[in-house]
Amino acid sequence: MFTHSIFPATMYWYQIFQDGPEYEARRKRSTFTPPNVTLKDVRDAVPKHLFERSTFWGLFYVFKHLAITYTFHLFATRIDGISQFLVGGSNDNITRPLHSLISAFLWLTFWAWQGFAFAGIWCLGHEAGHDAISSHRIVNSVVGIVLHTFVLTPYYAWRATHRSHHKGTNHMDRDETYMPPTRKDFKLPDGRVAVRMDYTEVLEETPAFTLFKLFVRQFFGFQLYLLHNRKGNAKYPAWTSHYKPSSLLFKPEQRRSIIVSNIAIGTMLSILTMLTYTFGWTSVVKFYFVPWLFQHNWMVMFTYLQHSDPTIPYYRGDQWTFARGALATVDRPLFGWVGRVLLHNISTDHLAHHFFVSVPFYNLPEVTEAIKPVLGEYYNYDSTGVLFALWRSFTQCVFVEDEGDILFFKNQCGEAVSEPAVDFL
């Protein structure tokens, strides 16, 4: 049911460290003519029953996911016992280090998988934010604020800016997050006179520093975005925050809901404080906060890669349309079946989601298959291994030009893999 027609049946170990064939095909085109596909063309290709939302199935997937999350938690409570069982009951100089090693491996395994589960909770809250869990608004609101609050995301504040993201995807003036820096931001010389050395003097950095920046972005970037609009649109004042009801991120009529989000976050923090007082800070860190950090790593990974790619354009002015923004999206089979089951198709069918935000996630694979013939070459798919794709985008998507209505990322040498066709320059 969840197979993809162009995803290779077998991927050898070395293939996860090279560009996927779909990416190579886009890169080799070198010039880009923006699509003229209309929303009506795409909608007409989708069977009507796929737009239907079922409260029963929406809640079924929510409770199923919560059961999986709790199962991971139960496993973690037995890690010490499992380790003791594997090394035996003795406590000598050989078994003690082995016990510690096995315990560390099991805890790391739990943190990674529970991080996926927490990311899936966030994904289901994302679905509720688009009214895709149920046809009843109250059900979506309750599910969304409970799930997002659990992972310390201010639901209504996030929902407001995320909906703005969908209304202006990859528009340089209207999109909300992962906004690309421009030539002026780096104080680079004019592109007509700049030489390679001009770029490397400003942009070149050691691999160790790049890894450090990637680590900070992966584990803390989302919370920094919520706190002070890090990597958000530069049209807002410095230190614009999702937690400030009067922030320019929100319309005046949204401010009460922002206060509700803040109260919910405060309540969750109080619960965590009480749990810390009752069970000790080490338990709360091991069972909640470390998985929560892993959740951010997975979540930032898939949200960043959805639109940030050297072959994907940004737009300004009249060149942007809703359909072109939706098509500035890359479907990726991130984490295989894990992305399907625990992340609820958020990366595998993200392009279809941008066209039809309220379609339930469990219908998106069918929607994707239905619209691919209409989209043709403008359906962007990439089977590149996730780590390689992340490193590629992080190191090659450096800046865009300050001028022009169709823009592609340029790398640390001022080079882009694609340019708009001459007719659109």
From TrEMBL:
Keywords: Membrane, Transmembrane, Transmembrane helix. The keyword Membrane applies. InterPro entries: FA_desaturase_dom, Fatty_acid_desaturase. GO terms for molecular function: oxidoreductase activity. It comes from the Eukaryota. Residues 107-380 form the Fatty acid desaturase domain. GO terms for biological process: lipid metabolic process. The chain crosses the membrane at residues 56-77, 98-118, 138-158, 258-279. This is Fatty acid desaturase domain-containing protein.
